[in-house]
Amino acid sequence: MPKAATKPVHIAWDGVKCTGCLSCMVVCSERHLGMSAPSRSRIRVSADSLGIDVKANYCRQCKRAPCAAACPQEAIQFDAALRVWLVDEGHCTGCGECAQACVFGAIWLDPITGLAVKCDLCQGAARCVEICPAGALSLVGYERGDNDDA
Amino acid sequence: MTPRLGGWTGKNLRVDLTTGRISTEPSIELGQRYIGARGVAARIAWDEIPPGTMPFDAENRLIIGVGPLTGTSAPNSSRTTICSLSPQAYPYEWFSYSSIGGFWGPMLKYAGYDAIIIQGRSPKPVYLLIDDDHVELKDAGDLWGRGILETQRQIVSEIKGARVLAIGQAGENLSRIAIIGTGTGSAAGQGGFGAVMGAKRLKAVAVRGSGGVPIAHPQAFSDCTLAIAKELEAPAGCPRQIKLDVELATDFGQRFSACSQQCAYPRCYICRGYHKVPGVIHPEMTYEGHLVCESGLLAGAPGTFYDWNVGFQAGFELAQISGDYGLNHWELGIGMIPWLRRCHQEGLLKDLDGVPFDLDSPHCWDALFHKIVYREGIGAALAEGAVRAAKILNMGEGLIPDYYTAWGFGGHWDGRGDRANVIIFPYWLVTALQWAMSTRDPMSSGHGYAQNIMMWSPMRSPGEGLEWDELTQVGAMVYGTPQAVDPRSGYDEKALPAVFHGHRSVMKDSLTLDDQAFPRIYSKKSPDHLARAAGMLGPSFEYHMFRLATGMDLSEEEFERMAERVFNLERALQVRNWQRSRQVDEKVVPYFERVENWVNPYLGESKGLDRQKFATLLDEYYALRGWDPATGRPTRAKLIELGLKDIADELARYVPPVD
After folding, report:
1. Per-residue model confidence as pLDDT tens digits over B410-451
2. Fold of B243-406
């Protein structure tokens, strides 16, 4: 399985603090697409119909990444400088193997382009973490025991 | 090169329930003139609601709108504004507005619509389903008779991921105090618009949107909204934030939630969600939901205005039961129940059709709600709201002015009645002007001035807020004169802030933004205590977000003019359809002549409104507005200046033009 060359950095989510406001999804799409379109965000927070139960899907930037291992095009590569896994859209064919492989449900095919999208930490300044009004998102380096199974 | 447009989606949806016809119309031009939501609704009402139309007429319009900032990263921007003829308003059932938070508004934007204009009356109960471009009226026979929570659950079980606006049994049964609700604890409460949906036999509006809202200047916009979100962030910004209640968190899984989808006030003191609260009235049930502001007061607070005590658990249960029925918590808590209690104390009300009148018993409340919703016994009159019920029952009519400020709505930041919020002379002078010019309780302008000052004042937030002289200096920067905020200023310069916040109210309800968060004026983060973020002044936040989202190239003065245009259009509509005049505005005077609850520390005594001085204040207000002081009507010159010549021309067909 492809292994991160440097210590990855990833988002952490606190389900107790999260209010389900979806600010993270809105800023993610504004940052990446220039539009407020949470359906195309790279982090997914969902609140139930009454807004009580909140869940989140977000990339852990695994040290050994199943999404990268599953990609037949080797389009998912670790960026040693940014310390995150990035999708090379030029090589992605939209086959969806990566989405099948991810145990966190944190990589998927964009509904418009049909290509794989995942968290790139906004190239280093994760906007979702910056805006989170509840302090539910934070940026952490990979620590031992965090995702050893992944 | 054509500049990129953003903010608005580009189309409105029109639904005729009588014919079942569904169509779309362009929306951008309307938005560029009237901002969105409330502003656009005023134009539609002018064009489509002729004088003489009543709330339950098929010809009444229900306009559900969002604005150019709704669903974007603008903080606290998830609100929807619902406008229609108001069944709750009294004695004039005029065109009014009510705003609602939650996830629904952004979803409408993502589905691709800026507003829904609903007209006619369906032959049978239906709900409107909007699934991106697919829009249809669906049978609601199975939903009719169900509560707001159950209706949402049923629809979402079929339409996964949809967000739903719904009415409960109160709306179906045309109660004038019926809300439109979404989620739990979110309501378009004031106005009685739930009954308008009931009259149209429209049970719900479900929406699912997978698209997005273009932003004209995305990078600059997200930098701007991030900076503003940081300034709004609670701990260092706003005083008096209440900490998480640890004990309740253990028992009921308490969590803070957001009345706005993009709420930036996670530590806000007025909104909390609870899980698994055991029922008291119905012990077999457990409840989950939110308590927001007034709904938290159903539990009671012995020795205060809310002089009853059913305990937290039963209070929570009662909030969920009445919310599910679709009853207006504000009307119940601040008006009807205190009025009924007084009637009981004075021997005018013996019991509730045999049920002992005991407000410490949650069962009494439960029975009362049931009577109101199903119009049983005394409930038939109470379903009309307390102001009308007093007449129908010929009971306690003389007590009504103790609880209802004007236009059929209970007190709000007026310094009388409810003592939950401290407000002193001279600040309620501005509130009185806002009431005088409004069609309902002027919450979205009242929070901006009176609540803001008092929350930051040494009276409400000693040691945490600002000192009186600091507040006064900020007031000088915002309103152009220290007299606008100085606690010793009396009647001086109170028209200025009333006009300013009148426009802010239009901006908030049109953009849309939450009225608790904007305008941002005071701050502890800047040396002069005027809020700032990334070089922007706090009171300019709305303008900068609007300009960057929409791409409209306009000055701040021009943006202010857009809000003024809407305010004047609303006034013109009131003049044309309900003969609004200075004499009507002055109906608020007797209420404010009563002595206030509190004492201004600089004056050492409680004050009431001085009729003569208030008349002068009204003169100043009309002059600032460019309205005729004798009639209170917008002058023809003012309407033309605001680009409303067509309005001026038509208005002249109804009333003689004033210069």
Report:
1. 988 899 987 778 899 999 999 999 999 999 999 877 789 999
2. 1.10.569
